[in-house]
Specification:
CATH class of one domain: Alpha Beta
Number of helices: 10
Helix content: 25-40%
Order of helices and strands: HHEHEHEEHEHHEEHHHE
CATH architecture of one domain: 3-Layer(aba) Sandwich
Low-confidence stretches: none
CATH topology of one domain: Rossmann fold
CATH superfamily of one domain: Vaccinia Virus protein VP39
Shape: globular
Length: 248
Amino acid sequence: MTSFADHFSGRARDYARYRPDYPEALFEFLAELAPDRTVAWDCATGSGQAALGLAGRFDAVVATDASMGQIASAVRHPRIRYAVAAAEAAPLAGGSVAVVASAQALHWFDRARFWEEARRVLVPGGVIAVWSYHGFHIDSEVEAVVHRFYRDIVGPYWPPERALVERGYAALEFPFAPVEPPAFPLEKLWDLPAVIGYLRTWSATQRYEAARGNDPLDLVREELSAAWGHPERVRKFGWDLDLRIGRK
């Protein structure tokens, strides 16, 4: 299997608990585009958020990830078969899947090889969808703290691949016949402990801890608590969702 930089296994359980799931309307859109609803491949599934959405619309989902820790912590479902595999080497026969999906992961891949692999496993007319999210929209006070944490505290520890997420996917090379999707809002209802749990899953947070031996959230915890209010108060917030969809 292709070697990879594993930024997530150390917090796989937190990743499963605190990363956002994706809009049901997105998976319904993909299912309607697909030439059939037999098999979908969720590449770099992480803790299985996208796999679970696909499982509600397809007979079978093959969900792969290069991280054994992520696979071990992924949500189980009778229609999902998990496997440890690199994005560029799927355990799938050629022309065997109707949809290839990859959520918040493309920036870690050898994209040229992944595009080839996606084309190999897709049936004629099959659909590929890749997406990522960034930003953090709630209110100005909370956003200011989170953005300072992102930029000034853990900013130097973001892996260079993160730049693709920052730039968005609009200018990304995409060797498939494009399909223009509608807008899909990505939102979550969380209290303060859940938000802190989410910030702990960031690869930059984990790299800061490994390099410096202390928790970077300690540097913003008091300020974030003051901006949030009662920690059990539930707020709605969202991210910017960048989505590319195409056909083989």
